[in-house]
Amino acid sequence: MFFFILAGFLSSNSARDGNIVDVVKYGAKGDGQTDDAPAFQEAWKDACSGGGTFLIPEGNTFLLYPIEFEGPCKASGVHVQVLGKIVSPTKAQAWEEQCNDWISFRKIDNLIVDGSGEFDGNGKVWWSKRLNCGDRPTNVAFNECTNLKVSGINSRNSGRNHFSISHCDNAVISNITAIAPEEMFYVFQKSAVDISDVKFLDIQGTCQGEHAISFNCSSYGSGCTDIEIKNVKITGNDGVDAFCKNAHVEQSLTSPKVICS
């Protein structure tokens, strides 16, 4: 059943790929010095409304201050293609009073994020200190997204974890390379809203912290269900493992070993 649904989802998005929303055409400089977040937001408005491909082109380095791409979208799906490099500010003060996420996607159905590009969170700004704004930021966060597919992208130097998934349903995370931080993936569920049908496939990278993968799921309802973790290879400090709370893993072929109950 899942594979039929996914095939239909990919086919419907492919039909919309003719509409290219290139962030450069909305004023993004791509010089690594200018904050391109305003241009990205303007481009996102059109992509969220009309669908197609939200293009972050190769050959450019885009500086983004903290940004949220928010739905619900009028389009039935959006394809975010990351080919260039995206870097965060080098000063933590850019986050002001909220440091949880650097880049986040919220309430978007049928979202595809792929490409050969890179997210660089300039994590050294955060690793040696904590500021008054709270926790250190996740590189890329997905919140309340249904039918999510993330593949091919690279992430490095996050302030905290590379990717977080909160209250998402039917998500596939595959062919990801992540380098450095304390936690590679963080799956969070704080209420009775289920996290289900989440797959982590063919993931590689490094981790400096105690837990490479964290599932922090609520005891309400059924917790996090139908999670598949396969071909995940993470290297780092001795004893790096996974933390699981109320998470039910369907299949686990990982290094380090992931055991959830």
Q: What secondary-structure arrangement, pairings included, does this model have?
A:
Blueprint: H1 2-14, E1 20-22, E2 31-35, H2 37-50, E3 53-56, E4 61-63, E5 67-70, E6 78-82, E7 85-87, E8 101-106, E9 109-114, E10 118-120, H3 124-127, E11 138-143, E12 146-151, E13 154-156, E14 161-166, E15 169-179, E16 183-188, E17 195-207, E18 211-216, E19 224-236, E20 241-245, E21 247-255
Parallel strand pairs: 1-3, 2-4, 3-6, 4-7, 5-8, 6-9, 7-10, 8-11, 9-12, 10-13, 11-14, 12-15, 13-15, 14-16, 15-17, 16-18, 17-19, 18-20, 19-21
Describe the structure.
The protein is mainly beta and 261 residues long. The protein folds into 2 domains: 20-182, Single-stranded right-handed beta-helix, Pectin lyase-like (Pectate Lyase C-like), CATH 2.160.20; 197-260, no CATH class. Helices cover 12% and strands 48% of the residues. The protein has 3 helices and 21 strands. The chain has helices at residues 2-14, 37-50, 124-127, and strands at 20-22, 31-35, 53-56, 61-63, 67-70, 78-82, 85-87, 101-106, 109-114, 118-120, 138-143, 146-151, 154-156, 161-166, 169-179, 183-188, 195-207, 211-216, 224-236, 241-245, 247-255. The strands form 2 sheets. Strands 1, 2, 3, 4, 6, 7, 9, 10, 12, 13, 15, 17, 19 and 21 form a 14-stranded parallel beta sheet that branches. The protein is globular. Mean pLDDT is 76; it is low at 1-16 and 188-195. Keywords: Cell wall, Cell wall biogenesis/degradation, Glycosidase, Hydrolase, Secreted, Signal. Pfam families: Glyco_hydro_28 (PF00295).
